[in-house]
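Repro:
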Amino acid sequence: MEKGVFVTGSNTGVGKTVIAAAIAASIKAHGLSVGVMKPVASGAKESCGKLISEDAVYLKKIIDSTDDDAIVNPILLKPPIAPTIAASQSGVSINIDKIWRAYEALSNKHDFVVVEGVGGLMVPIDDTHFVADLAHKMDLALIIVSGDYLGTINHTLLTVEYARNRNLRIKGIVINMLKNSDDFVREIEKYSSVPILGTIPFKENVSVEDCVYGDIVEDFRREINVSTIMRKET
């Protein structure tokens, strides 16, 4: 069995957090101890006098996680922009070792860890690390989340190509927020040679900002075989 998966996106706004949460909840339903992680989050909000990541809150609540926020989301930045720029504007430096220590703590505690990246694979974390480096260091296979938008074929194929160039394992692609025609889904699978794990329809009753899950877990478990995500390829 895999020790976890790394959820990345073809672009921002494709619903990585929602899919990562659905994966975590689905695997927990198999009776496993599941941890969630958002290594780096920008765009933090103030709540009860402290900064929080809405993504991390969403991930934790769906599985009733009691893990400390400091290991679920070790790097938290307020400006809603790329982490390196957000850190510079905030007058702080990103300590990459905090991420490694937090991931080690979660992986030692749980059977399976779902890690959600920030943006796509080439988002810089500091002067020497990109999101792809996080997945590589953690030795986790990728789940690539794509959306139903103009340009998704190009963005998804570029993500796949870069992942392969970095020797990252790709578990498969999830098409999120599918609205109408699925012609582009077949094109992505054809040209990427990566399996489409499933498609999730667009849902108005799902919101990370309001921490609303709707029936996303039911949709996910109906459309996607979670055993494929858990099983380690040999």
